[in-house]
């Protein structure tokens, strides 16, 4: 058995110095090499049942299986996701607190007068995955059978056709406003605490329609409770080939595709970020994750941290143009 006593004097002194430095720095020696060695928390900025929550829970399940360590989802809704984001920016940058979000993160600089964190620098993008079209859904019993039915009603009675979202400034909010701009229509916005609540409002016929990622509504569509009028993107969904794209339904410039991604606090060690990026790629390459994404009408592709950073930059610029033409009060 190898002990300090059996080592040459210089080697034992060197090891003692390394251990002393690690304790003085307040971190366990070689911690990055053993990550994760305790449960990892992924904070979701919205309530249970929405698109980000559904995708994140599936990813957390895969990461748990692959690493042998628990990845736990914690829902912390409020203030268009900024409460959760702020919590994670203040967390210890040790790889054990992450935040999940979707395209809405790129909207934040345009909907808040001042953010409580540095949008571009306080979080490090790790990877994005499950690229899902935005869908316009109505209750299966709605009188709106086509997109043109809904647009005609909105033009005939401005601000009377209602739509629900997870809050002002979210991706569905801006997507609906983009539809209004593209068609010369005016809709009535009804904000909820999360996309899942908006979906429940459609199911109960409290509101008329909802813009949502396909991952958040596909279960109710397949169950015959909701009806899809159109989807964004340049092709129809393989799982619902009879549903037209917005362009096919006569409306251009509604091409938003929603993605889900993970971020870590600034200062998280590069080795941990790379390991997490690798695990995400491995998860998305698995047959069951591909089946999950495609079953939700989404593309199961994954992009690394560099590509994700570029997507964030481009999305933030795109949403800025839409925000400039959307009437809303900045928070």
- Rg, alpha carbons: 23 Å
Model regions low in confidence, pLDDT < 50 over at least 5 residues: 1-31
Total domain count: 2
- CATH architecture verdict of the largest domain: 3-Layer(aba) Sandwich
Mean of all residue-level pLDDT scores: 88
Please state the overall shape, judged from the principal axes of the Cα atoms.
Answer: globular
Elements, N to C (H/E): HEHEHEHEHEHEHEHEEHHEH
Q: Tell me the major beta sheet.
A: 10 strands, mixed
Quantity of strands, as a count: 10
CATH superfamily of the largest domain: Bordetella uptake gene, domain 1
Give the end-to-end Cα distance, rounded to a whole number of Å: 64 Å
Tally of individual helices? 11
Estimated share of beta-strand residues: 15-25%
Q: Briefly note the CATH topology name of the largest domain.
A: D-Maltodextrin-Binding Protein, domain 2
Could you say which structural class the secondary elements and strand pairing correspond to? alpha/beta
Question: Describe it for me?
Answer:
The chain has 331 residues and is of the alpha/beta class. It folds into two domains: 165 residues, Bordetella uptake gene, domain 1 (D-Maltodextrin-Binding Protein, domain 2, 3-Layer(aba) Sandwich); 99 residues, D-Maltodextrin-Binding Protein, domain 2. It is built from eleven helices and ten strands. It is globular.
């Amino acid at each position: 058995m190898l002990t300090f006593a059996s080592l040459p004097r210089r080697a034992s002194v060197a090891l003692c110095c390394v251990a002393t430095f690690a304790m003085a720095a307040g971190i366990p020696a070689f911690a990055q090499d053993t990550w994760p060695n305790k449960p990892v928390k992924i904070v979701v900025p919205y309530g249970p049942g929405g698109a980000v929550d559904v995708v994140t829970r599936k990813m957390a399940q895969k990461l748990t299986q692959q690493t042998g360590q628990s990845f736990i989802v914690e829902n912390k809704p409020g203030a268009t996701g900024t409460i959760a984001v702020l919590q994670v920016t203040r967390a210890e940058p040790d790889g054990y607190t992450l935040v999940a979000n979707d395209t809405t993160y790129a909207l934040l600089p345009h909907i808040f007068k001042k953010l409580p964190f540095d949008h571009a620098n306080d979080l490090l993008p790790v990877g994005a995955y499950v690229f899902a079209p935005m869908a316009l859904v109505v209750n299966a019993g709605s009188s709106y059978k086509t997109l043109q039915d809904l647009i005609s009603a909105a033009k005939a009675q401005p601000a009377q056709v209602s739509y629900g979202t997870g809050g002002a400034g979210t991706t569905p909010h801006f997507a609906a406003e983009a539809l209004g701009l593209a068609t010369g229509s005016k809709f009535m916005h009804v904000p909820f605490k999360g996309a899942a609540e908006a979906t429940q409002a459609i199911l109960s016929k409290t509101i008329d329609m909802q813009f949502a990622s396909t991952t958040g509504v596909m279960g109710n569509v397949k169950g015959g409770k909701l009806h899809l009028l159109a989807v964004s993107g340049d092709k129809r969904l393989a799982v619902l080939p009879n549903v037209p794209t917005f362009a096919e339904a006569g409306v251009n410039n509604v091409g938003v595709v929603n993605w889900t991604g993970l971020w870590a606090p600034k200062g998280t060690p590069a080795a941990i970020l790379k390991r997490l990026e690798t695990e995400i790629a491995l998860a998305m390459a698995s047959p069951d994750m591909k089946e999950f994404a495609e079953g939700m009408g989404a593309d199961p592709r994954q992009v690394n941290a560099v590509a994700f950073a570029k997507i964030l930059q481009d999305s933030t610029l795109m949403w800025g143009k839409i925000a400039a033409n959307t009437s809303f009060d900045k928070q």
